[in-house]
Amino acid sequence: MTEELRIGVFICHCGINIGGVVDVPEVVEYASTLENVVHAERNLYTCSSEGLESIKSTIKEKELNRVVVASCTPRTHEPLFRATCEEAGLNPYLFEFVNIRDQCSWVHMHEPELATEKAKDLVRMGVAKAARLEPLEELTSDVIPSAVVIGAGISGMTAALSIAKNGFYVHLIEKGREMGGLLRHLYKLYPTDELAKEFLEQRIKAVEEHERVELHLSSSIKDVEGYVGKFKVILDENGVEKSIDCGVIIVATGAKELEPEGLYDYDGEKVITQLQLEEKLKHEDLNREGIENVVMIQCAGARGEVVEYCSKICCMNAIKNAKLLKEANPDINVFIAHNELQAYGEEYELYYRDAKKAGVRFLRFPLEKRPKVRKSDGKLVVDVFHERLQMDIPLEADLVVLSAPLVQNPDAERLSKMLKVPLGQDRFFFEAHVKLRPVDFATDGIFLCGTAQGPKDIEESISQGYAAASRATIPLAKGYVSSEAIISSVDEAVCVGCGICESVCSYGAIEVEETEEGRRAKVTGVKCKGCGTCGSSCIKRAIKMQHFTDDQLIAQERAAFVTETETEVVS
Amino acid sequence: MKEEEVKLVGFLCNWCCYAGADLAGVSRFQYPPNMRIIRVMCSGRVDPVIILDTFLYGADGVFIGGCHLGDCHYLQGNYYAEKKIEMAKRLLKEAGVEPERLRLEWVSASEGERFAGVMKEFTAEIKELGPIKFEKEEIEAACIAAADYSLRILATKEKELLEEGNKYGEVFTKHEMDRLLDDMVREEYEAKKILLKLKKPMSVKEIASELNLKPNVVFRHILDLKRYELIEVHEIRDNTPTYIARELSEGGNEE
Known about the structure:
The complex is a heterodimer.
Chain A: E1 7-12, H1 24-32, E2 37-43, H2 49-61, E3 66-71, H3 74-87, E4 95-99, H4 101-105, H5 112-130, E5 139-142, E6 146-150, H6 154-165, E7 169-173, E8 188-189, E9 194-195, H7 196-209, E10 213-216, E11 219-227, E12 230-237, E13 240-246, E14 248-251, E15 255-257, E16 271-273, H8 274-282, H9 285-289, E17 293-297, H10 314-328, E18 333-338, H11 345-357, E19 361-364, E20 372-376, E21 379-386, E22 391-397, E23 399-402, E24 406-408, H12 412-419, E25 446-448, H13 458-478, E26 480-483, E27 488-490, H14 500-504, E28 510-515, E29 518-523, H15 533-537, E30 543-545, H16 550-558
Parallel strand pairs in A: 1-2, 1-3, 3-4, 6-7, 6-14, 7-10, 14-25, 16-23, 17-18, 17-23, 18-19
Antiparallel strand pairs in A: 5-26, 8-9, 11-12, 12-13, 15-24, 20-21, 21-22, 27-30, 28-29
Helix pairs in contact in A: 1-5, 2-3, 5-16, 6-7, 6-13, 8-10, 10-11
Chain B: E1 8-13, H1 17-26, E2 35-40, H2 48-56, E3 61-66, H3 77-94, E4 102-106, H4 112-129, H5 136-147, H6 149-163, H7 174-197, E5 202-203, H8 204-211, H9 215-227, E6 231-237, E7 240-245
Parallel strand pairs in B: 1-2, 1-3, 3-4
Antiparallel strand pairs in B: 5-7, 6-7
Helix pairs in contact in B: 1-4, 2-3, 2-5, 3-5, 3-6, 3-7, 5-7, 6-7, 7-9, 8-9
């Protein structure tokens, strides 16, 4: 490197959060002795406007070309300090973050001296890395102003309509012959008791009538190529192959009810699921069948029985169906055998009370002693273990209704591979961050909503549909995307084109191409997410993972324990 | 050195383990101050060469923290990390260093308390082992072996060979894979040790006695090294050829 390195180090007291444990003045003094450091100072809060102003003015006055801030965590504050550097005309990637709060002062509160030593070491490591940082540029590329929404359940329909209303063209893809998803099987909806059919018809009409929604029924996804802004979705629509170009994709593929095969004597006739019950309610079959006693069993197949998770919607769904049964025929006996009942929030709690008032009986069983269904004199009996009485309560039943959990569709695995987005341990699609990015995938330009992400009721599915649409509209409205600057790059002079990098890349971001010099790996910048697995796999070590290069990591690691007498070790 | 002063370096992935370490801080879970943390975006980024280099430059223990299997932010990175760390452990063993000094753990962003617990445990374990002892040349040889293409291919392809099989669809059993890895790692390590010895000219017999290897094994490695143009014949002394390395950067690194 030809330019002279001029590193500025800013060490934050974070009030007493760091300063109360770590001897900040001592760390500042130490930092000023490090090679290439031309400025070291401390701030009460480096992230305050004063602190930021100081960074900016020092960059100018002392011609800093690298900035190190030792404070909290890059996971919250790196964007702020990078932007500050940029405002002062310094490439934001010439900034290095050192964490001396979350991973030092806060966790070594009773060892101030050792914490101070650790802070010095961490600053030295940060300076060593900073000396090797290189300026990076974010890439931008155009966005095709249309969206593909996969799945025309309530969540997908909501998302598609919302994007269309925002002025963009939407392809709504549904594998079935009709729109509506799970909603088509429901009778009435809680907490309003409106008819699902009427509600759904309005939504279907709105989708069908919108000029910017193009519906693809009986269509399955055959392949997906490309990246944010330039996706190509290959469809099989009624046996005809079609190709759709789009800028963003929303996954709204929904879920299905677990078929409780082998559980609680399930037979689909006398022992049925809640969805099968809804079907009966729709057609008013129950009165015809002369049903007098109904027992509902909650968590059938969930919470450790078949799947591990709680399906979230079954409590309210059972309460609703029980209430509807009682309202249709007050003489009917309805029991809900449950482990823990969730009727959260004001509306649901009131709804639960109404059900109780209508005469629905609730019985609690421990999870380790779930109810048993048996036959006695040709009649069904459900034994529910009563925890207080420590005995089984036998309940006669003409009909047993199992509240089975929602589970992922079997074809989700294939779709997850095509889209290169993950499924979680419960097999549902897995969002980028549970709180910060709840409807994004880690892959740019792909979003998710509805029960594809996990069990949720109509209201939540609609909210998520709107949320996903709003997130997906951002790149569409901007018209361009800027992608990660932290991506890998290939030294073509060293690369031998073996293709091992291509085989480990989950995003298809690095591929071997024929060049005049032979086969060489090539990175598609906008696809690369910057994990660096290709770099650690490259057999010739020809791949450089920017911002986390071998050179930088080795400098950092070698600086970890260098004592002052042997500083020359970092070559 | 006092045993309290064991030096640890940790490479933590940004999305899970680093976040877990942050959470330990936010929740004020205390743990010993021995580890120096380096942030990487994914545990899959951590190269065995860098791990071994960290030991070479004085770490008594190295910790790698990633997302739980199945939860990798980059889908597959941690699966590759697992195999690479296994490879680094095998090389450590060859170099006479306890492989327990290298530890891989999956810690999620929500496991702050667990992160602190793992830190306590790992620090205590390394204190128990005491400061690291090794011959510089041994770790250097391990470093060069890790940088060489054959072990890099194996470490990366292991996952595929175990799950999907080779080009002919032959899936390896764990047992077969272990045997293959043991052999390959030993071979590569021996070859790199010979290469390091040849900074000064030596004959096959001299190398064999210095490294306590059989002369026929040394000769086989010499032929390979010569074929790859890493060494050349220096002179013929009393009808016995001596060999010398062509060029080798200091410190066992090629970066």
